[in-house]
């Protein structure tokens, strides 16, 4: 059984003809997008807004028509993966470096659906380093300012060079100390010049699709209002 495929494809239940759909990034939502492509070939009429260049490429490959922000008032549903999911459905995202576009699209969506295998479920957020997208200009200073908040930072690198986001920015990955007030951390991060966005997705998830690891790996769907 492919857990990512199971949860990724389950999200299709929430898609209806005529919808504008935010398309997330990563190996779980890959299965959502691939399945959506199959349904589009069979006549489903939707338009997608991708959260990354990688997803844009995939959507084009599977034949999902794309639409730009200037053509829409609102996104009906956005579907995305996560790196960590807490019991209150707060998330850490950005392991793939797409957090900025992902957050813009999640916030623009009427319904934000998260799909993740049960390995992503944690009692509290923070084992996965928190990605923060920063402007390359003066990033050393931005990093110091963030470290002053008590966090340990690492510049994300690929083959010895800084990883570049789709927006041309850097990512700093932070270890969050235990007992950190995440709402407060988010607020403080957003006040630092040079910080563009952080990977905390607090209070954004409407529906969470995962598997029940303790029972029989059956699908579990949780809603924001009865977390
Ligand atoms: C990318 C993300 C992804 O949604 C997250 O990393 C989960 O990816 P995957 O489904 O491959 O485990 O936030 O920026």
Key features of this structure:
227 residues; Alpha-Beta Plaits; 6 helices; Rossmann fold; six-stranded mixed beta sheet; 26% helix; four-stranded antiparallel beta sheet; alpha/beta
Order of helices and strands: HEHEHEEEHEEHEEEEHEEEE
Q: What is the helix content? A: 25-40%
Q: Please identify the top-level CATH class of the largest domain.
A: Alpha Beta
List the domain count as a whole number. Answer: 2
Characterize the overall form. Answer: globular
Rg from Cα? 17 Å
Q: Termini, distance in Å?
A: 27 Å
What is the average of the pLDDT values? 96
CATH architecture assignment of the largest domain? 3-Layer(aba) Sandwich
Strand order of the largest sheet: 2-1-3-6-14-15
Q: Low-confidence parts, pLDDT < 50 over ≥5 residues?
A: none
List the total number of helices: 6
Bound molecules: ribulose-5-phosphate
Secondary structure class reads: alpha/beta
Strand content: 25-35%
Count of individual beta strands: 15
The CATH topology of the largest domain: Rossmann fold
Main beta-sheet annotation? 6 strands, mixed
